[in-house]
Amino acid sequence: MNRQRIGTALIILAGCFWGSMGIFVRRLGAEGFDSIQIVSIRVTLAALAFCAILFIRDRRGFAIHRRDIPLFLGLGFGSILFFTVCYFTAITMMPLSTAAILLYTSPVWIMLMSVLFFHERLTARKLLALAAAFGGCVLVSGISDGGITPAGLLIGLGSGIGYGLYSILGTVALKRYSPYTVTAYTFLFAAFGSLVICRPGDMFGRFLTSDNPGMLVMFCVLTAIVTAVIPFMAYTLGLRSVEASRAGILATIEPMVATLFGILVFSEPLTLLSGLGILLILAAVVILNTDGKQTDKKRIEKNDKKCLTNS
User: What is the pTM for the complete model shown?
Assistant: First the structure.
């Protein structure tokens, strides 16, 4: 199996783990944590895990150049924290399905930014896959009749832009640092930012008043590992060998997996439209895996040469 196929598999794996997020969010919500506090718990524990991984793998990876601090600020604040805050804010302003559709405009922004900054080719197959993936997300999320205010629209689109920004800035960061350094510093900055806005006193108070604080802490650790550590590490590793625009479309498998978890875990019904949406998302994955292999191979070889030159 070549690196491009491995990278594709890693991106899809990340989407599958992200798709399980609803299970953990509902459980922590039942404990009284609000959405921003759940985000803070998730990114803070993930930051500790990524730092531990970096410490074990390569302690020298903690050294970053001062000129790259804005890059990691962009990844932590501008991407991870910004998109989650926008997304959860959008949820309070409009139906969940509408917020989810706006979030999954991210492949559009990734493709546009990739063309602008990385000069990636905008092929017919990519556009077809993009249309299939976005259409599938709309059908899986559900078409809502709820109105959208201008402010809600901007915030919802902001979640999609912030979500897509990780692929763009992550690609840049991976040219200079290992995936372990990239994930560690991204989540460190996101964690610091989240602790400012999550009302930490109230959040920690819920652990103290819990009937079983030990089990709650363990569940929070599991939440961070399953919904952040594993998927973000897999996605970041995948970005080394998959174009950002292709990665963004492949990651749209997340709502499909979330729907399947809803059916299997929460006994939610599978509608005809949801089933069609799942097929469209799978079609997008198939389309992408028959396109651009030679381009990706050349890009990988070029990146390898750069790495050898820098070392």
Answer: 0.82
